[in-house]
Amino acid sequence: MAEKNIVIVGAGFGGVFAAKTLSKKLKSHKEYNVILIDKHSYFTYMTELHEVASQRVTPKHVQEDLEHLFYQDKNVKLLTAEVNGIDKDAKIVKTTHGDIDYEKLILAVGGQSNDFGTPGVKEYGFELWSMEESLQIRNHIENIIGQGAAELDPAKREQLLTIAVVGSGFTGAELMGEFIEQRRVLAKTYKLDESEIKLVLLEASPSILNMLKDRNLADKAFKYMTDNGVDIRLGAMVTGVNEDGVIFKDNTTLPTKSLIWTAGVKAKSFISDWGFKYGRGGRIEADDYMRATLENDEPAKDIYVAGDTLSYVDEKTGPVPQTVEGAESAARAAANNILADLGFGKSKTFAEAVSYHGFAVSIGSQYTVASLMGLNFSGFFASIAKHGINLFFYSQIRSMYSIFHYLMDEFFRTENGRNPFKGAISRLGNVLWSTPLRIFLGLFWILAAVGQLGSLNDLFWQHGLLSFIEIITGAGILIGLMTWPLAVVSVILTVVAWSTNGFDLTHWFLILSSIAVMNGSGRGFGLDFYVVPLLQKLFGGLWYGKAKSVYDELDK
């Protein structure tokens, strides 16, 4: 049976969601291949780029290797390439790898920052809509604050220590929230008074976060930022940027070397000559079924649109927003209608597929404003809800690997107190200090098994299977081998001993000690230092495959 290709261009939120959906539904139909094309070999969690730019998390936190995401989806083929155009008549996607024929095609190539032609932004400013741009900001801020700390001229010093963000939408507000926290770290690092690092948020309109219907939430975000020393300038129309700073409509200026533009998003410019009808921001217009619209207003045959590439206005919910749920809803509709075209379901309009639960705008790691499921709230619980939204997306694309690492990076590996719990639950301490406790716990279980605990012997077992388990548990914990699972066994043994032989304060000590050594103490003079990375590599490779910088799986 001849193979048929369903090609998806773009591995963003919309593209990945569509690929996962189609892969699952077509699993038993071997004649169909899902080909996912992107110029990168990884998926970027775009809505977390501000955390990379401000050094809250490492770059790998927002990168999910496509092999990891799709290794178990055997009908998905990955291709790292750039798309140069589409031949609609021949049904071919033209790439740097060569021509690829398609039965169905989804365009989800994503967006880019829109500076609206403002002079000097690209030459002297920074934008935040890609991994590369976030890394540029990350490196620049660290370097420029260091230069400012060493500058003795007051005017130059102030210019170097001023960070300006243009645009108070979701991206601008979230980035400024991260800078509030990063400022504390940078001030300490370079021996500065925190107030010397000036944060300025520039907004052309009379208010911030203008996409929020509930202005009370926007007011709370405004107050939080101003209370934390952010200079918010409303009605500040930026007309240009040069090497000295920002130029406003009234010809006043703001001296700075750090201008980050977040004031707009548009479709990728390279799609502009693909022969479609384009709407606001250069996006491809689509009909109710997410079919791309041609220049003559007819729907393109077998071509669908999703993500930031899409321009569509729903009668009830309005324009599809450039958000994760907007991308997912369009991808869901497109995938569903492709399946219907292939005879595996019923067509659905966007209105039938749309699913908006709300939003959460994080102003740093410890404060968020949210409107979810009809409820408006802010602060700590809103921050937890924001993380819940991100985890929900990962659950939809069925990636437990991503969920685990997300939780570790956002809660347990955070530095400088930058998580909703202000760092209280971070495990970035020196695990070496728990090594003596680990050794003691291991010896305790061995001594319990051989009856060398004196009056405590009656609390445990010296014969039979349980005694053998005591020895194995103690030996493993003693040498730091598989410490975490054996600590769990230690807790279970203690609870069983408690229920069988009666309570003693020793039982509480053992339970708490077992929990304490779960913090990675097996890596402090223990074999887990060598064994755990080896097991992660071995079993991770079996389940998730091997990450690569370039994919070419068309012959898979």
Automatic annotation (TrEMBL):
<dbReference type="InterPro" id="IPR023753">
    <property type="entry name" value="FAD/NAD-binding_dom"/>
</dbReference>
<keyword id="KW-0520">NAD</keyword>
<keyword id="KW-0560">Oxidoreductase</keyword>
<keyword id="KW-0472">Membrane</keyword>
<dbReference type="InterPro" id="IPR036188">
    <property type="entry name" value="FAD/NAD-bd_sf"/>
</dbReference>
<feature type="domain" description="FAD/NAD(P)-binding">
    <location>
        <begin position="5"/>
        <end position="327"/>
    </location>
</feature>
<dbReference type="Pfam" id="PF07992">
    <property type="entry name" value="Pyr_redox_2"/>
</dbReference>
<protein>
    <recommendedName>
        <fullName>NADH:ubiquinone reductase (non-electrogenic)</fullName>
        <ecNumber>1.6.5.9</ecNumber>
    </recommendedName>
</protein>
<comment type="similarity">
    <text>Belongs to the NADH dehydrogenase family.</text>
</comment>
<feature type="transmembrane region" description="Helical">
    <location>
        <begin position="437"/>
        <end position="456"/>
    </location>
</feature>
<keyword id="KW-0274">FAD</keyword>
<feature type="transmembrane region" description="Helical">
    <location>
        <begin position="508"/>
        <end position="532"/>
    </location>
</feature>
<keyword id="KW-0812">Transmembrane</keyword>
<feature type="transmembrane region" description="Helical">
    <location>
        <begin position="468"/>
        <end position="496"/>
    </location>
</feature>
<keyword id="KW-0285">Flavoprotein</keyword>
<dbReference type="InterPro" id="IPR045024">
    <property type="entry name" value="NDH-2"/>
</dbReference>
<keyword id="KW-1133">Transmembrane helix</keyword>
